[in-house]
Fold:
Amino acid sequence: QVRLVESGGGLVQPGGSLRLSCAASGSILSINVMGWYRQAPGKQPELVATITSSNSTNYADSVKGRFTISRDNAKKMVFLQMNSLKPEDTGVYYCHVEGEPELDAWGQGTLVTVSS
Structure:
């Protein structure tokens, strides 16, 4: 049983910053890809950022230059530093990991609200 626990969401004013964290626990041999997805109200889920085991990163165009994804392999954690937040960044942010054995897990989500 693999569990992902996210933290760090909340209410922030436009232009502000938040740092999301996600910790994985359970029967995990290795984690290949870690990532963050989000779902805005009334919209489909979308990829925000991913990071591989070799620290190769990928970002949605809408967050490039503002968000930074990182990981701590020893602690099985992934982070998302979000700067210069905009109202359109509002949504539920989900952590996702892929790895071994047959690991494909999602967190419960953490709400980010960007509003004045």
